[in-house]
Amino acid sequence: MILYIEGNIFNSPAQVLVNTVNTVGVMGKGVALDFKRLFPEMYKQYRTLCEQGSFEIGMLWLYKSPNKWVLNFPTKKHWRSPSKLEYIEAGLKKFADTYAEMGIHSIAFPPLGCGNGQLDFESQVQPLMYEYLRNLPIDVFIYPDKNSPFVEHLNPTEMKKWLRTEPTSLPFLEVWDDLIQLLKKKSNFTTIAQNNNFSAQICGEPKGIEICASGQRYVVKYEDLVAFWQQLRTHGFSTRRIVPGINKQISYLIPIFSELDYVKPVNVTENYEQVTSIGLQILPSAFSRSLHAEQLPLISID
Questions:
Q1: What pLDDT score does 110 carry?
Q2: What ranges make up the beta strands (E) of 23-171?
Q3: Spatial CA neighbour of 14 closest among 104, 99, 112
Q4: Residue 284 half-sphere exposure toward CB, CA atoms < 13 A
């Protein structure tokens, strides 16, 4: 049975709420941001799946909390891009094939791919949802009236700036974009502790950052950079002890990452009488070097 309901999807009596997401780990504006605030642990797990490349169009990821379950449904690949109808159909087909296996007996959908996704509900999305959901022996609640005045991919500069006001949530793909732009503009750096000069550039095979220092060439692979950022994001600090896997390269990564607006170098020691070592610190949003950080309002669910 399908019911179309005017109102807030978070007030739905359904067992499961559908969260429309992208596959790069960003829950930016609109309903996705509400889900991120209400289910912070879910967001962390979703972001990790995306950073690992384990969450693609046509896949569904069910998160179970003590109260509600959340079905994360990819409707676009990147927040910078609009949704496509074939993405919606791929997810609906997957849902129709697996809802019983997931143990779902009632579910609430937003208008898939509309709003930020820019698909039209009445002419495009509703007929497709009806086709795949009408014969399922479960309760389906559709909330078609959620419109967002802010369309992410039509405001990329504003969206990028807003994402960087909360660096402790920033997926690595966004950091990687910043590193690419940084290394296009600047290639020469100096290590902070020893004042040794080196150069750095993005390389394609293997994908990562190529470092040339004292006649030697090093490549910090993309997957190691992902792990480095995840550890920095999790701990708030990054030192040789925290990231032993790239111990040799961290002296080069520190001055590179320090060029980002949301990271700074810091002196760290476990003993006041010991010599300090150089590490990195992620800047809390309140201390971001961005000049126009946005103060987000508290969420209110009616």
A1: 93
A2: 61-64, 69-74, 106-109, 139-142
A3: 104
A4: 2
Tell whether the model's pLDDT for residue 244 goes beyond 60: no
Q: Where are the domains of the chain?
A: 2-155, 167-287
| Residues 18 and 73: beta-carbon distance below 8 Å | yes
pLDDT in tens, 86-129: 999 999 999 999 999 999 999 999 999 887 777 989 999 999 99
3-class secondary structure, 202: strand
Give the three-state DSSP class for 281.
strand
* Single-letter amino acid code for the residue at 177: D
Options 76, 160, 184, 248, the catalytic residue: 76
Using the predicted structure, report yes or no on whether residue 234 has a pLDDT greater than 90. Answer: no
Q: Residue 207 catalytic?
A: no
Helices (H) and strands (E) in the chain — how many of each?
A: 8, 13
- Compute the average pLDDT of residues 9-27: 92
3-state SS, residue 147: coil
Task: Give the tens place of pLDDT for each residue, 184-196.
Answer: 999 999 998 889 9
Q: Which residues contact 101 (CB under 8 A, 6 or more apart)?
A: none
Query: What is the Cβ-side half-sphere exposure of residue 267, based on CA atoms within 13 angstroms?
Result: 6
Contact 269, 277 (CB under 8 A): yes
When the candidates are 2.60.40.10, 3.40.50.150, 3.40.220.10, 1.10.10.410, the CATH number that belongs to 2-155 is 3.40.220.10
Q: How far is residue 226's CA from residue 53's CA, in Å, rounded to a whole number?
A: 11
